[in-house]
Automatic annotation (TrEMBL):
It holds the Pfam family Phage_integrase. Transmembrane segments: none annotated. SUPFAM superfamilies: DNA breaking-rejoining enzymes (SSF56349). Residues 234-244, 259-271 have a biased composition (Basic residues). This is Tyr recombinase domain-containing protein. The keyword Ribosomal protein does not apply. Gene3D superfamilies: Intergrase catalytic core. Residues 18-215 form the Tyr recombinase domain.
Amino acid sequence: MWTDERVAKWEQTGEKPSPVMVWTPQQTGAFLDFVAEDRLYAMWHLIAFRGLRRGEACGQPWSETNLDTHSLTVSSQLVQDGWEVEASDPKTDSGYRVVALDDDTVNVLKRHRERQDADRKEWGSAWVDTGHVFTQEDGSWLHPGKVTDLFERLVAASGLPPIRLHDLRHGAATLMLAADIDIKIVSDTLGHSDTRITRDIYQSVLPQVGKNAAEATAKLVPLQRKAEAEKAARKAAKAAKKNGKGNAKPKDKANAQAKAKKKAKRGKPKK
């Protein structure tokens, strides 16, 4: 994962610690903000949050995308054969899956569909009706290799530490694990055939997830000594604040006394 220390070293040397690197949630958010106006923003968003593979996103049809039920079914993909592109079944049997969509992702896809409808009208009879969610400007298939090239250019322009497009999918898994989503659900969402695959791939982020779980568990148990220590600390802070108000500076005291004497002198009756 791109921790602050690794980012600092990358900025100095330009070297990636590992071929596979994952953004933090903050870095993912910064990238999505940066590409908000990109024509394929919805694709980057979908991969970042739901973890579709590149070919699955490129080949996802509207007919298998149900925004009313907040879900999509992964049933095909576009793959490269050399530089040629062809439609294919998912990578494995477990690749056939239903992926739940959150409200924000549904709204992103709705806006994307509206934009695609506008493109369809603009192209008129030249529009290529592939029925895919993500297409080229004229409706034709996306080329997976060109999608990767575009992603890498956007990452470079954003100034963020480099990751591969497939690492954006890894980031989706990291987000789910950090949100305490059961690893079986994470595995099913990603299309893994076994949770052991998910554990093996994301074992580097699991310790942090485990620490978060431990912290959450510890907070459930009330400890008297801890409560007393916190109470004593609050009492000491309150006393220090009160003493600070009572200790006026010598100069302030002298000014106050002079003002009081002057006021008393004005108040004496004349003889």
